[in-house]
Design goal:
The protein is built from 10 helices and 10 strands. By secondary structure, it is α/β, with parallel strands linked by helices. It has a single domain, classed as Rossmann fold. The strands form 2 sheets. It has an 8-stranded mixed β-sheet with strand order 1-2-4-3-7-8-9-10, with helices on both faces. Pfam families: Esterase (PF00756). It comes from Kosakonia oryzendophytica.
Length: 302
């Protein structure tokens, strides 16, 4: 790609993001708040005709956060190359929204091993822990997001790569070339950060990542990253355009354009990146839609 055109592309992204950030804090409260009611039994508790589940617990290295990890293994025999595997953040909410009917659709193809990484809580989200675990450190400052400390993504990623993944994959035939990571909102931000830093995942699904002034540099780093650094990776940027109904019109649209142009710039540079738009879906509605789309896409890949 022509360097001058590339620089113009990056400038357009930065300008649109800057316009977004001037209004960010005025509109962030208009996001639909998640339902924080305690969860009932999930598919692992009820039993599935198509998957069998196990549960493991882990602790953070500093002992402050406590994880619950569900591993779903298809009853269908693995292919010769091993099962694909999908690691999903916000595992409590994911497990609550997995149905046996959906698992049946996966089993009609090449069903992946499902690794849902949650917390030891009866609630769908551990807001304090996920804010710390999923967000990268802000440059030069302690990151505080809606009154919660952030910036612990590096330690959490190391826990996944060095402790959680080896244990959950032990004695299971996994295809190391088809290992994916999915996250929504702060989790989507974690996926973007991992795209630049992780070596064990080959597919990265980021759904409505919470881009703000603390981490705007991530998109710029991604578009400027050397091709060989991500040559074995695929990036899926998943967005809904229904947010303009609950936020000031044009605000979210600027981010949509920036995300779309990030994917376009990566493709122009020869990097595997895809922008997926979910028409009419809002931030919250993207949670289930995006993780189901990621699982279906992986199950149907050749």
């Amino acid at each position: 790609m022509n360097p001058e055109l590339c620089n113009r592309e990056h400038l357009r992204i930065v300008v649109r993001l800057a316009a977004f950030f001037t209004l960010f804090f005025c509109t962030v409260s208009s996001y639909a708040r998640p339902d924080m009611s305690p969860l009932g039994p999930n598919i692992a508790d009820k039993g599935s005709a198509f998957y069998h589940f196990s549960v493991r617990t882990f602790d953070s290295t500093d002992g402050k956060r406590h994880y619950k990890v569900w591993t779903g293994i298809p009853n269908k025999a693995p292919p010769a190359s091993g099962y694909p595997a999908v690691y999903l953040l916000d595992g409590n909410a994911v497990m609550d929204r997995l149905s046996d009917a959906f698992l049946q659709t996966l089993s009609q193809h090449n069903p992946p091993v499902i690794v849902a990484i949650g917390y030891q809580t009866p609630l769908p989200f551990d807001l304090e822990s996920r804010t710390w675990d999923y967000t990268p450190p802000a440059e030069g400052n302690e990151q505080v997001l809606r009154g919660r400390k952030g910036g612990g993504s590096q330690a959490f990623r190391q826990l996944i790569e060095q402790t959680i993944a080896p244990q959950v994959e032990q004695h299971t035939a996994i295809n190391p070339h088809k290992r994916a990571l999915w996250g929504h909102s702060y989790g989507g931000l974690f996926v973007l950060d991992a795209y630049l830093s992780s070596r064990i995942f080959t597919a990265y699904y980021t759904a409505v990542p919470s881009i703000d002034h603390n981490n705007v540099a991530l998109l710029n780093q991604i578009t400027h990253t050397e091709k060989q650094r991500v040559s074995h990776k695929q990036l899926w940027l998943m967005e809904g355009d229904g947010e303009q109904r609950v936020r000031e019109k044009g605000n979210h649209l600027d981010v949509l354009i920036a995300i779309r142009e990030t994917a376009s710039t990566l493709r122009d540079n020869g990097t595997a990146a895809t922008f997926l738009l979910f028409p009419g879906l809002t931030h919250g509605e993207m949670f289930t839609a995006s993780f189901q789309a990621a699982l279906q896409r992986i199950a149907t890949e050749e």
